[in-house]
Amino acid sequence: MSELHVMSALRAKRSEIAKQIQDTERKLTEYRTALANLDAAMNILSPDREDFVSPRRRGQTQYFGKSELSRLVRATLREAKEPLSAPRIAADAISAKGLPPSSHAVVTKMVTAVLGALTRRGEFVKTGTMRNSRWTVAA
Fold first, then answer.
1. 68-137 maps to which CATH number?
2. pLDDT of residue 12
3. Burial class (CB in 10 A: 0-12, 13-18, 19+), 93
4. What single DSSP character describes residue 123?
5. Exposed e or buried b for every residue in 99-123, given b needs 16+ CB within 10 A?
6. What's the whole-number mean pLDDT along residues 52-70?
7. Are 115 and 86 in contact (CB under 8 A)?
8. Has residue 10 got a pLDDT over 60?
9. How far apart are CA 24 and CA 22, in angstroms?
10. Which helix (H) or strand (E) holds 60?
11. How far are the Cα atoms of 55, 56, 85 from residue 100, in angstroms, in the given order?
12. Mean pLDDT, rounded, for 91-111
C-alpha cells in the first residue's frame, strides 16, 4: 500500500512540475515576443535609418522650413495646366526637396492641410470630394 501512495505522490508532483514548465515556457515566449517588438520599434526610430522620421516638434517639421511648403504648393498649382490632387502636389514637393519616398503619406497630409488653409483664404478652388478632390488657382 505504501508503494502505491508514494507512486501517487510522485506522479502528482511530476504533474505539478510539468505544468510549471509549460507556464514558464509560455511566459518565455511572451517575453521573447515583447523583446522582438521593442527591438523592431527601436530599429524604426533609429536615426541611423535612411527613412528615419524624428518626433515632430510643435510648429516645426523636419521636412520643410517655415512657409516653405505653402510656397511649393502655390508654385506647383500656378504652373499646372489642370487641377491637381493633393498626392500629386505632395509628389512634386517631395521631388523638389529630395525627400525619401517613405515620406509621401506624411507630406500628403501636410499638403492637404495647406490646401485647406489656402482655399479658405480664396487663393485656390477645390473641386470634388475626398479622394476625387482637385485644386486649381482661383480666377
1. 1.10.10.10
2. 94
3. buried
4. S
5. beeebeebbbebbbebbeebeeeeb
6. 68
7. yes
8. yes
9. 5
10. none
11. 16, 17, 20
12. 87
Q: What is the DSSP string of 61-91?
A: -SS--TTHHHHHHHHHHHH-SS-B-HHHHHH
| DSSP letter for each residue of 9-47 | HHHHHHHHHHHHHHHHHHHHHHHHHHHHHHHHHHHHT-T
Q: Tell me the residue type at 120.
A: R
Cβ pair 85, 133 in contact under 8 A: yes
**In whole numbers, what is the pLDDT of the chain averaged over residues?**
84
Tell me phi and psi for residue 136, to 5 degrees.
Answer: -145, 165
Tell me the pTM: 0.55
Domain ranges of the chain: 1-44, 68-137
Q: Are 107 and 123 in contact (CB under 8 A)?
A: no
Place of cell 492641410: 113
Report the SS3 class of residue 125: strand
Side chain identity at residue 56, one-letter code? R
Asked if residue 51 has pLDDT above 70, the reply is no
For the segment 15-40, the average pLDDT, to the nearest whole number, is 91
Three-class SS of residue 134?
Answer: strand
